[in-house]
Amino acid sequence: DINSVVKVFMEQNRLQETTSILLEALKANRPDQAQLQTQLLAMNLQQAPKVAEAILQMNMFTHYDKAYIGQLCEKAGLMQWALEHYTDTADLKRVMLHAHQMTPEFLIQYFSKMPPETALECLTDLLRHNRQNLQVVVQVAIKYHEQIGAGKIVAMFESFGSNEGVFYFLGAILSSSTDPEVHFKYIQAASRCGNMQEVERVCRESTSYDPATVKDYLKEAKLPDPRPLIYVCDLHGFVGELTEYLYKNSLMKYIEVYVVKVNPLQCPAVIGTLIDLDCSEDFIKTLLQNVRAACPIQPLCEEVEKRNRLRVLLPWLEARVAEGNQDPFLHNGIAKIYIDTNRDPETFLKTNQFYDSAVVGKYCEDRDPHLAYTAYKRSWGSCDEQLVSVTNRNGLFRLQARYLVERQSAELWEIVLNEENQYKRQVIDQVVSTALPESTNAEEVSATVKAFIAA
Length: 455
Description:
Blueprint lengths: L1 H10 L3 H11 L8 H14 L1 H10 L7 H10 L3 H7 L3 H8 L7 H7 L5 H14 L4 H15 L1 H10 L3 H11 L6 H13 L3 H10 L5 H11 L5 H10 L2 H10 L3 H11 L4 H10 L4 H11 L5 H9 L8 H9 L5 H14 L3 H7 L5 H9 L3 H11 L4 H10 L3 H11 L2 H7 L7 H15 L3 H13 L1
Helix pairs in contact: 1-2, 2-3, 3-4, 3-5, 5-6, 6-7, 7-9, 9-10, 10-12, 11-12, 12-13, 13-14, 14-16, 15-16, 17-19, 19-20, 19-21, 22-23, 23-25, 24-26, 25-26, 26-27, 28-30, 28-31
């Protein structure tokens, strides 16, 4: 009888021999031998834990009392084996506190057996008990985040103020996630850990975060380096807000960095916002001087003109002209400044080939109708209606008469000599009394007479 044999040997304290006999006798792993399996493991756990561990590793027995053996494993310091035997959550959480005695590989694998809620509770206890468990907690979180939930894991790390935990955990899953909250929390954690390179990279490269949320956070955080904020605002259309933030926080050099190196195309919006903020003209002029020709002309002129500050652009506009730039918007801008500052605008309007007559003429109408006439006349045909209109409204019939005679256009004569034209009589009077007598060109006189006959 095997029970009797075991009893005799154990009375003699012959553990090694008893173990050998039982290992041989219990090879079949029969259910009716459960008590002997339990006895074999128990006596070795109490007296020779290493032998007990070797027996457990052989995985020969399945019918012994697992809860009892689990308790003995725990007492013997075999924490990994204790975990393998326990099923009760309270037991698991208690043994888990000895995670430093277990291999990370075992722990990570062990968590696969747990329900998500239990796994989260155990991870929370691990962090609460010893912050040195952070690395293994992060590894487990990365492997099972889909089951547990990334949001719950982040909340757990945050409850301990562990920005590093959030940073390392989300850093590992970021590339596979499109969740805006995951990307935002990663940016937040990276900034709190001082890893500005990562903050900048994700702000520049990620397409998943919510721009307004990230922008508001970065503004509140007031990071020493505003480049992440610059990228967010540039990519998502918050340029005015960015300019205001940089200006009000005296980060003037970063305004220059933005318009010179990051995105010169947004220079007009930046200049417009700076004007609204009463920024000094000297700074604006220096900024434009540094951006040079990379700044688009049309939107810049539009932004500044609607704020009635066009003349601040003059040095920059003249520098572009000196480079040979023939953009009509550039020459329109200079024309408007010369008109407003009375810098011999008439000569400019007569001699400059590149401005748009319709735009500049319209600009002059309320300021100086004579200049409007000069601008319209210079287009020689494309602004005839505007020329007639402005001279009619302002009683400049002599100028209109001279133009009609010189222009020799049958279509234009037809419009002016139409019976419905309320100014017809004044025009004819000036043609007869001034324009024709002044003319020395027979063709002009001939065209005029033909027009009168046709009318």
